[in-house]
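Customer escalation, tier 2.

The customer says the design service returned an amino acid string that "doesn't look like it belongs to this structure." They asked us to rerun it and document both sides in this ticket. The original structure tokens are below, unchanged.
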């Protein structure tokens, strides 16, 4: 099954590069151009210059910067293979939580083998960008986030035991998330953890684009005669977390509808009444609590917001309707909140098909409730659908069935920070 191993990670030499909190950044795809410039202004060695290059010939520029930093000792490679224990402490739903896993190399496997499983569809534009960057730099600057099943919590117990001491690296980011990392070089400890995964599958939580890009890059190198089976490009940097970790948090991703020529809120509501019980509520601030109560009861519910202080609550009458409309989908896919919303409302009532959604022509996304409401109030969006989060068990079931959810079905929080350790694809 899943093959994992330690590796000589590439890390910042803070004596030359500066403070670690000035060198790391959030995932590249949630950083604005202004934020990018601010990171570089604070410290010109920030990882964003490698992870999100800009300008003419940007990919080769990233390669030049990487080589320059290696030559100057700003980036240095670990002296021995290691695994990296990574912990995040954060606030979600009003509670302070922690989540802990390991960063390691994982052998790439085709999805068809059923060893590493995706759960979401991807966009080709993002994959092309990441492939060009890998071709130029031959390096992973950020890790893929995957989950594993371990009913006995054996691996987590070992991880906790190895991380009782003070972390080797610790910082707090701008979102009040504390990041800690322990560098484990003990060969026996590494082998013991790696052996745990011999009979396990991995479920990609975040980083589908990067994983598919890694497969394409490996295949490209083999086709060009630049690599053979077993070379470093066969392995990618991943963070692995127990799927039942108490700190695992998934946020919903709300849908925003915009630029529809024939948008009519009343017609939408009339159309929804065929499948949903529709009730009006007078205070938009009650949406999240109301939806969560229904979520805890197993109901399929959404808030439909078109402005002002009121909203319509939509509660599905009968889940059997999806079985009739999507007879070839598994029960797990049929019962997803996003499947029901997309099938019964976005496609059937609005006429927004899968291609339109993928290109984000009339549909955009946000995980932030206030941002969704504000977008409608400011006229940027015509309406918003507020959702409950996808359950981790649903993610596992859909992936295990070899199916995929629509884009933006899940938002694992918090995002992993970029720049604590990197994976140069050479031995």
């Amino acid at each position: 099954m899943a093959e994992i191993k330690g590796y000589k990670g590439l890390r910042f030499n803070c004596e030359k590069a500066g403070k670690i909190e000035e060198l790391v950044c959030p995932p590249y795809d949630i950083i604005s151009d202004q934020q990018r410039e601010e990171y570089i202004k604070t410290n010109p060695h920030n990882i964003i210059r490698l992870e999100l290059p800009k300008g003419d010939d940007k990919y080769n520029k990233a390669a030049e910067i990487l080589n320059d930093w290696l030559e100057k000792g700003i980036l240095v490679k670990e002296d021995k293979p290691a695994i990296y224990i990574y912990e995040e402490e954060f606030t979600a739903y009003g509670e302070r939580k922690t989540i802990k896993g390991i960063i390691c190399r994982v052998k790439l496997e085709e999805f068809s083998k059923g060893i590493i499983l995706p759960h979401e569809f991807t966009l080709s534009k993002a994959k092309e960008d990441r492939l060009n960057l890998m071709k130029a730099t031959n390096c992973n600057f950020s890790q893929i986030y995957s989950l594993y099943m371990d009913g006995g919590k054996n691996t987590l117990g070992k991880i906790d035991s190895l991380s009782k001491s003070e972390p080797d690296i610790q910082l707090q980011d701008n979102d009040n998330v504390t990041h800690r990392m322990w560098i484990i070089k003990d060969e026996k400890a590494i082998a013991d953890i790696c052996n745990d995964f011999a009979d396990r599958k991995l479920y990609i939580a975040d980083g589908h684009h990067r994983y598919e890009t890694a497969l394409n890059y490996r295949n490209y190198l083999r086709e060009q005669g630049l690599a053979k089976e077993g070379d470093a490009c066969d392995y990618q940097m991943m963070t692995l977390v127990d799927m039942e970790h108490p700190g695992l948090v998934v946020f919903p991703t709300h849908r925003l509808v915009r630029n529809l020529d024939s948008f009519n809120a009343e017609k939408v509501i009339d159309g929804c009444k065929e499948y949903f019980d529709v009730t009006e509520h007078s205070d938009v601030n009650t949406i999240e609590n109301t939806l969560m109560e229904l979520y805890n009861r197993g109901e399929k519910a959404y808030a439909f917001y078109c402005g002002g202080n009121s909203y319509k609550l939509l509660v599905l009458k009968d889940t059997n309707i999806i079985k009739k409309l999507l007879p070839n989908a598994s029960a797990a896919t049929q019962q997803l909140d996003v499947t029901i919303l997309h099938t019964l409302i976005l496609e059937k009532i609005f006429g927004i098909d899968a291609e339109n959604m993928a290109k984000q022509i009339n549909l955009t996304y946000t995980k932030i409730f206030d941002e969704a409401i504000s977008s409608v109030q400011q006229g940027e969006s015509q309406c918003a659908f507020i959702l409950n989060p996808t359950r981790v068990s649903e993610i596992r079931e859909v992936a295990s069935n070899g199916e995929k959810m629509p884009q933006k079905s899940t938002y694992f929080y918090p995002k992993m920070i970029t720049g604590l350790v990197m994976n140069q694809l050479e031995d």
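Tier 2 assessment: The sequence is consistent with the input. The CA atoms of residues 23 and 51 lie 12 Å apart. The radius of gyration is 23 Å. Sent an explanation to the customer and offered a walkthrough call.
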